[in-house]
Amino acid sequence: MGGPLRLFVGDDWAEDHHDVEVMDGAGRRLAKARLPEGVAGMARLHAIVGELVGDDVDQVEVLVGIETDRGPWVQALVAAEYTVLAVNPLQAARFRDRLGVSGAKSDAGDAHVLADMVRTHAHELRSVAGDSALAEAVKVVARTHKTLIWERTRHTQRLRHALRDYFPAALVAFEDLDATDTLELLGKAPTPAQAARLTIAQISGALKRARRKNVAEKAAAVQAALRADHLGQPEVVTTAYAASVQALIAVLTVLDTQVKTLQGQVEAYFGQHPAAEIVLSQPGLGPVLGARVLAEFGDDPGRYITAKARKNYAGTSGNRGSEAVSNDAACRAAVTAEAMS
């Protein structure tokens, strides 16, 4: 028969169900079904595989293509010793275009695309590793921490755009819009008129609470900028902008608090991992960046066959010159991952 039997499963997942299609090595559809999310759906998938392979279950390799690498369903697939291949949605979209199928999206059609993709391009896809529970925990908090930082940046940009439209003097007065002193002062005085009435004592108090240096000099500069002449909006429009800015400030304040809180969780979980010391031994990797490296590379020693495979995942294979320099952090991550195995 020339090697073990292989079944190729495309799993298009949604919140409450999975559309699956099973192919053989020749691309023939062997089964298709819509399975509920949860234990009943997983049991049905095992039953479908069992019905197809019969008594040869130990001689069959099942490869599953799915557009996620996390969650209880994926963990159950890994626990069943299926080879789970995480497919980037952009990869699936491009593969669908190459097949020349209709651009109309359907769950069953996507399951077919994923099954055919793992049948023909499994060697180009990333296998979901059997990482330890602690590595998964590090991944959860590290990714959430990073997402909150991104959200803080987005809301800071929204604040900047609003101020530019009605209160440009604030952009001159405050260098860091997401700084605690800036948020405090803008929260107290969100309109140009209110800000112009801020006293040196009020400004200095905010700067001191934010632990700024050269408080007197900076307070005078902030007050001068806020009292300078500038173009403005009609009062009713300014009031509306001020309400929007206060809402953004409230969100930014919460985000800043939660970013700091979650950073402590990232450092705590990462510090418990046996590989933390190895990761931190690499130049430029502190607890937060080190936790992200561990989270994305995982700790399954069998995940990468060669050092080149690690570099491929880091996106550093074949880099030269300035491009290699720009990928220095990824290179360090690849070296760190090698040391961990």
Automatic annotation (TrEMBL):
Family matches, as InterPro entries: Transp_IS110-like_N, Transpos_IS110
Coiled coil: none
Pfam families named in the record: DEDD_Tnp_IS110
Domain called Transposase IS110-like N-terminal: residue spans: 9-168
PANTHER family on file: PUTATIVE TRANSPOSASE FOR IS117-RELATED, TRANSPOSASE FOR INSERTION SEQUENCE ELEMENT IS1111A
Protein's recorded name: Transposase
Organism: Actinophytocola glycyrrhizae
Biological classification of the source: Bacteria, Bacillati, Actinomycetota, Actinomycetes, Pseudonocardiales
